[in-house]
Amino acid sequence: MKPWEGRFTGATDVLMERFSSSIAFDWRLFRYDIEGSAAYAEMLGRIGILSGSEASEIVAALSEIAGEIENGTLPFRDELEDIHMHVEQRLIEKIGELGKKLHTGRSRNEQVSLDTRMYVKEELARLDDDLKGLMEAIVRKAETEKTAIMPGYTHTRRAQVIPFAHFLMAWYYAFKRDRERVAGARLRADVMPLGSGALAGSTLPIDREFLRARLGFSRISENSMDAVADRDFVLDALYAAATIMLHLSRMSEDFILYSTEEFSYLSLPDALCTGSSLMPHKKNPDALELIRGKASRSMGALFTLFTLIKGLPSTYNRDLQEDKEPLFQSLASTREAVAIMALAVRGLFIDREAMERAVRMSFMPAVEMAEYLAAKGVPFREAHHIVGTMVKACEERKVFLWEMDLDEMRRYSEAFDEAVFDYVDPRHVVENRKTEGGASLREVERQIEKESAYLRGP
After folding, report:
1. What percent of the chain has pLDDT over 70?
2. Of the candidates 50, 81, 104, which is a domain's last residue?
């Protein structure tokens, strides 16, 4: 029997039942639905709608139903639509008329909000743990490889020498911001909506403070109409997930690029790569390519929800049923992608010789050479022009700046002296940079020490 059958004549069309059913995906909320229902039964006992023994009987039966769902012995049926109705129907089957009392003063509108909030809170806590694991992997790899140097790139062109660990820590800080976003999304999901009813609350003295404390929420929703309609917390979760996937996608691209034969800076762990059905020599970075691909789905999930909500009138509308699939998919894919990247970082092989060779066989010292002249009193714009002219001449001769002798350099500026060769040596460059947060070995060590303490916690 459907909860609303008293209002209707005739049965719901079978096609409508199939079209409106969400049990194929919202069954994932069963633990939260049962926990929320158990808390609600206890509350009904506190306010006298149920006796103490009735509340206990309902709670015990709900626990049995949770076991049946976990064991796969409770069949799901389209005609019961969603997880809420499946749990309620099974409760009535188990304990009879008493089961019909549980829904007193309660609406599925607030129920689904409660379940989704509990799910989001728990999944975001797990995602936070996953991010922390990835960040720990990055810091450990940075510590291990902190003396390796490599080219830093802008516009995919060699730009300035950097410690490899500085490159890794750049991604670390992106994920640190992601943890902040996840924490913010979790905070905004931490609102208890039960007691809002369908949209206007109840004439019964629903003990919302008991429900808040019993279900582990930090605060109670302020407005019943807003409570049943609000999916901002889902948008926040999807935005956090999409941003994480964006960062993972870009990091994947770096690793894919740097592990090509053309670069050969890195080698990815075999466990995350596959071969070719035709070409025996291939080692393809499939795991990282899939992260790039799945990132598009997470971004799509966010925009799906934006377009789902933008035209809805106040309070609950059935459209909101469509928020579950993108939410479930996005959070699950994001957690998996974070775990994959942690494995990639832990298993990276770094070819220090290839990196340093790329550093030395380049014109990257031009930046420091211009700064050297500026430190000697040459106006920077003039120094920039002088070194640019030197680079052009070297390109024509097919030599590098460090291959010029001092007499050649002094033809371009009298400010050059023997000290320039040490000044522009790549290893001296990463030792001598002064800027806080810059790509120096000293700053790498400071960041590793500071962030290791952060990851250990207070």
Report:
1. 98
2. 104
